[in-house]
Structure formats: structure tokens, C-alpha cells
Design a protein that fits this description.
The structure holds 2 protein chains of 2 kinds.
Chain A lengths: L1 H16 L2 H8 L3 H14 L7 H22 L3 H42 L4 H18 L2 H13 L2 H9 L4 H9 L7 H14 L2 H14 L6 H31 L8 H12 L1 H34 L13 H19 L6 H13 L1 H12 L2 H4 L6 H27 L2
Chain B lengths: L1 E2 L7 E4 L4 E11 L6 E7 L5 E5 L3 E3 L4 E3 L12 E3 H4 L4 E3 L6 E3 L2 E5 L5 E6 L2 H6 L4 H10 L8 E3 L5 H5 L3 E2 L3 H7 L2 H8 L4 H10 L2 H10 L2 H10 L2 H10 L2 H10 L2 H10 L2 H13 L13 E3 L5 H11 L8 E5 L5 E6 H6 L23 H11 L3 E5 L5 E6 H11 L1
Parallel strand pairs in B: 2-7, 9-14, 15-16
Antiparallel strand pairs in B: 1-11, 2-3, 3-4, 3-8, 4-5, 6-7, 9-10, 11-12, 12-13, 16-17, 18-19
Helix pairs in contact in B: 6-8, 8-10, 9-11, 10-12, 11-13, 16-17
The chains are: A mainly alpha, B alpha+beta.
Chain lengths: 413, 402
């Protein structure tokens, strides 16, 4: 009985800390993520799956460090960068983050547009309408309503599970590829792998989880629950990445069809896996688009507020956090406008933007490393040796892989 | 007034011209008087030097120190600007609005100390050396951006040593302030807010604070006070100041207030009031020069050459804001010491000693002696400058009376 009571209490605490880790991790699979995973799977098939476990580890470790820093210091990532590294570093980081994020926002709107198209909804009318609704929702709704909305959206990621089943993949080969490398290492593979990494472990993800955890005011006593919430989020999100990639591989890669974005993937799945799989894949894309189109611009707005000293929180009314909400609005409107431009090819943007996202990770890791090992800041919650080894190792590998990838792209190997 | 952004990374030399290194940080005392005690210089050899500020000859670049510099270590209660103040967030208790210390404002005279912090957008731009350019562009577009300044008196120095920048709570803050400082602080607020703050203070302190406010503020406050309250306050403040205030009021109100005063005080003030029959108006001269706070030193010097050729004397340049109100003063010595591209608002004295048309000559002379100035601007109730009176003119009138 006693044991049962402890268990219930623990479960309740766990439910109380749920949100930041799971939401951030799933948002990492936004429309930009779906597109990158689709393109990667269509090109390299099961061999691309090998990267999933390392990505999950890097995601779990880095997000946990970010969340821990926020809980222990009660400060956001951007707050700490500004306070410890000064205004010049801050300005560079903000410009980098805002640029990279904008690339992601455009991709999310593109995903939405394509998703709308897929279901015969006219994007010219409904995409602007959805944008306005999105803005009103963020301004009007409270922090808790928004969080609940995110959690509902996440539920829709199950669609990828069903499309994977319907695609009738070679599960044995898929699971083997997960642990044993099956592909040949080429520069194209490296470049794509970094892009996949860059869409999952993101710069904005680091900023977002931090601000979000800070906004949630999780007490230090609940640190270990929060840690597991983040780990579970990372594992779940990559499990759905796996389904997504498997669905694409079993249909598009196997038949060697060229695709350049997620909507094409949804269409190309149809002949092999049936209309239901295709529709589910498309629905997943729309949900991913919404999630990204809210969270990524929010991250830039959060970071701006923290970097430069403005009031910014989802819990504050419009007039109090004007700069925060306006920044959010500017980004989604600009994203919408770029997406609505006729005849714009976003294929090269997709991979390139996510490649840059991956390539700036070592910088983010450096900040994480220096903050999480600061005794004054973290006290007894400093990084453990294994966390440091993983963080530094991931930073070094990503740096080398990015350099090789970019050289490969330039030399057209 | 100097900004930390303009000092950081600047070359430090000795008065014999030997280069020592670059200034990286300043050390200050976490106290009510945040005196800058040491400077940190990064030497090319790698070991940073901590030099006591007694060796500083000037902080205005090129930063010069005496050649017999010694080293010193940090003592208790000493903090670094970059580590403990700059870039930190300030939590404003009233609005919970989070702002950041974008720059630190340093005052060189009379003692080298931190005057306050800049929390405005210009403070960020200054680090990139584009504050003036962007400011100019925005001005041309009709948007005026100014620095947002928080005075040191607003902070809790003790919290700084604990790694936090915290503002004082209103009540707590008021108790620890010198009346002079509080008055300076209040002059930035609206009359309603001032009334509110004054009502929080014990009467004696309130009177002291009012005494230190400028005359325009004083008269607008007394216009709102009842006769009874006015009388109470007037009994507590310096008779010279009291007369100055009474003269700005209507004759009926003045009469009412006088009747409510204790007899002794009444006689004294009445005597001073009759003195004021010598109107300042007869002594006013229009030989003064006004400029804008955004004028450069170069422009002001040209103006002096062009417009004051026929003046018999010129000691001060008065600074008027866009509305034409007197907002600052600069003496010629200060002007000549500044580099020619400096904007006037950067070094003008914002609290100007002024008199009114009704101010008695005796009081005007006393003010000049007290503040050691050679001329006083005469302003009207809207803070518009009417003219100036010079010490020699006033002295002459007094002599004739003897």
C-alpha cells in the first residue's frame, strides 16, 4: 500500500513536470523535420536509420543539460549568454539564431501550404487565415491552454506510426540498420546526416526548452522527474522519426522515386501504401507545420526578450509584452509571405537551412558546456564526466562532419 | 559623464607615454557611494594588472595613469563592472518588467564613481559604435531615442554582492536617500507622483526635499497644497527659499499662508518680502547664448564666434530642449575641454540654478555665492529662459543700497 502511494505521488510529480521535454522534442520534428527525414529516407533508405540512435542520445543529453541549467539557475539560456559572454557575443548569437529560425519557419509554412494542397484546401485563402488565427491564439490564450494545445498536436504524430504499418516495410532490415551501419559513407550521406541531425537537435530547441522550463517554474527537487521527461521526449520523438523514415523508405526509396519535399512524399506513398497512408502522412505534416510555425518564432521572440532585456512571457497580456508578441507576428507574417511567393523552389533551402542549423550546434554545445560546468552557477548540479564526454564528443564529430559535408557540397563530390 | 562602453578595450598609457595595455574592467565599491577604486588593465604579457584609481590622471581616452603605478588586490565589498553589473538583468519590483544593464554611466567629478546604468536601446548600440549614427537616422525620421538612465540611488548595493541587481522598494529607497538626491530624482517625475512620494515621507523630510527641488517644481507643488500645508512646510525650510516660493504664488494665497505661520517666522518672511521690491527685471540682460542638447561642441564654438561678438561677457552656454525649456548649462571651461564632436547633453550640468523675476536681489546674490556661479538664468513658470543676471550687476545694486 505504501509502495503504491509513493508510486502515485511520483506519477503525479512526473505529470506536473511534463511539457517542456516532450513538446520541444516533438517540435524538433516540425514540418522542416518531416521534410528532411523524408528526403533523407528517399535518398538513402534504411541506411539513414543508423543515425537515429546517436541523434537520440545527443538530443536527450543536450536537452537535459539545457533543462537542468534553467531549473538550477532559474534563468534562460539567452539570459545566461548575455550575462556571461557580453553584448557582442549576444548580438552575433541572436542574428544567427534569428536567421536559422527564419529558414525553419519558411519550411514550416511551406509544409502547411503543401499539406493544405494535399487535402484540396486552397492555401491562398486558408494559409493567411490560419496565420491570423495562430497569432490571436498565442496572444489570447494562457500558458496552460497553449501547452494543452501542443500536447494535443503531439497526439497526431501517431499518424506516422500507421502510415509506416500501411507501407509494409521490411522491419527486420529496418531494425538491423538501426544498429548496424549498412550504407556506404559518402559526402552526400554526411551532408544529409548533418541535416537530419540539424533538424532534430536544433539551436532553437536549446533556447526553447530553457525558456519553457524557466516559464514553468519547476523546483530543483523535481529535477530528476524533469530529466526523465526530457529523455522520454527524445526517445518518443525519434521513434516517430523512425516510423516516418520507414514509411518513406518502404515506398519511395524502394521504387527509387525522386522527391524533394514532404508533400511529394505523401503523394508518392499513395500508389504503394494506399490512400489512407498518404492521407495520414499528409495530416502529420500539417500538424508538424503548426507545431513548428508556433514554436520556432516563439523561440526567437523569447531569446530576443532575454538577450536584450524586454518583458516576454506567454502568460503576459499583449500590452505588457508588446515587443515579444510583435516579434512573433513579424516572423510568421514574413514566413507566410515568402511561402506565398509563386514559383519558389524550397528544396535547396530545406537541406541547406537544416545543415546550417546542424553546423551551429557546436557553438551552442560550447555555451552549454561552459554553463553546465560552472560551479558558481550550477553548484552540485554540474555536468557529470559522462555528460561532458558525450557533449564534447558530439560537438567534435558534428564539427568534422559539417566541414566535410560543406567541402563535399562545394566540390560537388 | 562617461560610458563604460567607451572605456573598455581602450589603451592605457602612463603620463610619460609608455603603453601599459588595454582597460578591461573597473572595480567598484558595492555601497551607497559606488566609488570606482581600481582599474583592470590587460597587459600584452598576459597578466592583468589591477591598478588603484588614485593613480588615474584621466579616464577620458587616452586613459592616462601616473608612471609610478602599483598593484593591488580586491578587498571585501569590491565588485567588477563586467562580472557583477553589466549585462545583468534588473528586476523592477513594481512592474516586474525585466530590463538589462546595457551600459554603465561613470561620473568623473567630484569623485570617480558609478552614477547609474543605461537600460535603453541606445546603450546596446553604443557597444557597436553606432549609437550616434542610428540616433541621427531615427531623429531624421522624427523618432527621438534617448538613453534610459537608472540612477545608482535606485539600486540595493548589498544585493549586488549576492550576484543580483535589485531595485529598492519605494519606501525603503526613500528612507535612505539624501534629500538632495531624492529631489533630483523627483524632478524626473510628474507633479502628481511627486505629491504621492512626498505624502509617504515624514513632514520634516518632505520639507527638506521640497527645499531641494527646483523653483518651477516648488511653485507647481505649492499651487496644489492647501494654505495650511504650505505654511507647515514653509516654517521648516530656509527663509530665502521660502520667500522665493511665496513670490511665485498669487497675492491672496501668499496672504493666507503668511497668516498661518508662527509670528516670528511671519516677521522674518515679511521683511524678506519687502526687500524684493527691487525687481530682478531691471537687471536682466539678454546677452546669453542658447543651444540644443544635440549640438556638437564644434557647432557651439562656431555659434559663440558668430553670435556673441557684441556681448560684454560670456561665461555659460544654456541648453534648451525642443520645447524651449531650460534643461542644462555648460561653462566655457568645460566646453573647451571636450573633443569637438561630443554632443552637449553628454557633459552638460542638468540641474541648473535659476531665479525668477520675483526673486529678491539679496537671494540671487546668495545663490550665486552658494553655488559659485557668475550669472544666473531668470526663468518663467514654464521654465522658459527670460534673460540672465550677472554677478557684477547684482553687486552694483547692492552697493547702491548701502
Amino acid at each position: 500500500m505504501n509502495y503504491f502511494r509513493t508510486l502515485t505521488r511520483r506519477l503525479l510529480v512526473f505529470l506536473a513536470v511534463i511539457g517542456p521535454g516532450v513538446i520541444t522534442a516533438f517540435a524538433d520534428n516540425d514540418a522542416a523535420g518531416v521534410a528532411t527525414y523524408s528526403v533523407a529516407a528517399a535518398r538513402y533508405g534504411y541506411s539513414m536509420l543508423t543515425i537515429l540512435i546517436p541523434i537520440t542520445i545527443v538530443l536527450a543529453v543536450t536537452q537535459e543539460i539545457g533543462g537542468r541549467i534553467a531549473i538550477v539557475s532559474q534563468k534562460g539560456f539567452a539570459d545566461l549568454i548575455r550575462e556571461r559572454f557580453g553584448i557582442r557575443v549576444t548580438m552575433v548569437m541572436f542574428l544567427l539564431l534569428a536567421t536559422v529560425n527564419f529558414g525553419v519557419i519558411v519550411q514550416d509554412f511551406t509544409g502547411l501550404k503543401a499539406g493544405f494542397h494535399l487535402f484540396g484546401i486552397n492555401p491562398t485563402i486558408f494559409l493567411p487565415a490560419a496565420t491570423i488565427l495562430l497569432f490571436l491564439f498565442i496572444v489570447k490564450a494562457s500558458y496552460h491552454t497553449i501547452q494543452r494545445f501542443f500536447l494535443v498536436l503531439i497526439f497526431f504524430y501517431l499518424t506516422y506510426f500507421f502510415s509506416a504499418i500501411l507501407a509494409k516495410p521490411d522491419w527486420k532490415l529496418a531494425l538491423t540498420s538501426l544498429v548496424i551501419p549498412t550504407g556506404t559513407l559518402s559526402f552526400g550521406y554526411l551532408f544529409t546526416a548533418i541535416a537530419v541531425l540539424g533538424t532534430t537537435v536544433t539551436a532553437w530547441g536549446q533556447f526553447f526548452i530553457n525558456s519553457y522550463v524557466k516559464d514553468k517554474n519547476i523546483p530543483v527537487e523535481n529535477l530528476r522527474y524533469s530529466r526523465w521527461e526530457i529523455y522520454i521526449g527524445a526517445i518518443l520523438t525519434d521513434l516517430f522519426s523512425l516510423f516516418m523514415m520507414v514509411a518513406v523508405t518502404a515506398t519511395i526509396f524502394v521504387h527509387q522515386l525522386p522527391i524533394t519535399d514532404a508533400a511529394q512524399a505523401a503523394i508518392s506513398i499513395r500508389p504503394f501504401a494506399g490512400p489512407n497512408a498518404s492521407a495520414l502522412f499528409g495530416l502529420g505534416l500539417i500538424v508538424a507545420g503548426f507545431l513548428g510555425a508556433i514554436i520556432v518564432p516563439l523561440t526567437t521572440a523569447y531569446a530576443f526578450s532575454e538577450f536584450f532585456g524586454f518583458s516576454g512571457s506567454l502568460d503576459e497580456p499583449f500590452h505588457k509584452s508588446k515587443t515579444f508578441y510583435l516579434l512573433f507576428l513579424i516572423q510568421i507574417v514574413a514566413g507566410l509571405l515568402v511561402t506565398m511567393l509563386p514559383n519558389i523552389s524550397l528544396f535547396s533551402i530545406t537541406l541547406a537551412a537544416n545543415f546550417v542549423n546542424g553546423a551551429i550546434l557546436p557553438i551552442i554545445f560550447y555555451f552549454l558546456y561552459s554553463l553546465a560546468n560552472n560551479r558558481n552557477l550550477m553548484g552540485r548540479y554540474q555536468n557529470t564526466r559522462i555528460q561532458n564526454v558525450l557533449l564534447v564528443g558530439a560537438g567534435i564529430i558534428i564539427t568534422i562532419a559539417s566541414l566535410l559535408g560543406i567541402i563535399g557540397q562545394i566540390m560537388r563530390w | 559623464m562617461l560610458y563604460f562602453s567607451e572605456l573598455k578595450g581602450k589603451q592605457v598609457i602612463t603620463d610619460t607615454g609608455v603603453k601599459i595595455g588595454k582597460l578591461t574592467d573597473l572595480v567598484f565599491l558595492a555601497a551607497d557611494q559606488p566609488i570606482i577604486t581600481k582599474i583592470v588593465v590587460d597587459t600584452p604579457r598576459g597578466e592583468p594588472l589591477t591598478i588603484p584609481s588614485s593613480h588615474i590622471k584621466t579616464l577620458i581616452p587616452p586613459i592616462t595613469v601616473t608612471s609610478d603605478i602599483t598593484e593591488d588586490s580586491l578587498s571585501q565589498n569590491e565588485l567588477y563592472i563586467t562580472k557583477n553589473l553589466l549585462d545583468h538583468q534588473i528586476i523592477d519590483i513594481t512592474g516586474n518588467k525585466v530590463v538589462r544593464v546595457n551600459d554603465v554611466v561613470i561620473q568623473e567629478r567630484p569623485t570617480l564613481l558609478i552614477a547609474g546604468v543605461d537600460i535603453g536601446f541606445l546603450g546596446i548600440l553604443r557597444w557597436f559604435g553606432i549609437d550616434e549614427t542610428v540616433g541621427k537616422i531615427l531623429r531624421n525620421l522624427g523618432i527621438v531615442v534617448t538613453s534610459r538612465f537608472l540612477s545608482w540611488t535606485d539600486f540595493q548595493p548589498l544585493e549586488l554582492t549576492r550576484g543580483k541587481v535589485v531595485l529598492k522598494k519605494e519606501q525603503h529607497k526613500l528612507d535612505n536617500l539624501m534629500p538632495e538626491d531624492l529631489a533630483d530624482h523627483l524632478e524626473q517625475m510628474t507633479a502628481e507622483n511627486v505629491l504621492h512620494v512626498l505624502s509617504l515621507l515624514p513632514e520634516d523630510r518632505a520639507a527638506h526635499v521640497i527645499e531641494n527641488l527646483n523653483i518651477t517644481f516648488q511653485s507647481s507643488l505649492f499651487a496644489k497644497f492647501t494654505a495650511k500645508r504650505s505654511a507647515k512646510i514653509l516654517t521648516r525650510i530656509d527663509p530665502d527659499e521660502a520667500v522665493d516660493i511665496l513670490l511665485t504664488l498669487t497675492e491672496t494665497k501668499r496672504g493666507q499662508i503668511l497668516l498661518l505661520l508662527p509670528e516670528e517666522k511671519q516677521i522674518e518672511l515679511n521683511r524678506l518680502l519687502t526687500l524684493s521690491t527691487t525687481p530682478i527685471g531691471n537687471l536682466i540682460t539678454s546677452e546669453y547664448l542658447t543651444v540644443s542638447p544635440e549640438d556638437t561642441v564644434r557647432k557651439v564654438l562656431t555659434k559663440i564666434k558668430d553670435q556673441t561678438r557684441h556681448f560684454s561677457a560670456l561665461s555659460y552656454v544654456y541648453v534648451l530642449n525642443k520645447a524651449g525649456q531650460l534643461t542644462g548649462v555648460v561653462n566655457l571651461h568645460e566646453l573647451l575641454l571636450q573633443p569637438s564632436d561630443t554632443l552637449l547633453y553628454r557633459f552638460m550640468t542638468p540641474s541648473v540654478v535659476v531665479i525668477h523675476l520675483e526673486t529678491p536681489v539679496e537671494i540671487a546674490v546668495k545663490k550665486m555665492l552658494k553655488y559659485k556661479v557668475e550669472a544666473l538664468p531668470v526663468i518663467d513658470s514654464k521654465k522658459m529662459i527670460i534673460g540672465i543676471v550677472t554677478f557684477d550687476d547684482l553687486a552694483e545694486t547692492l552697493l547702491k543700497k548701502l
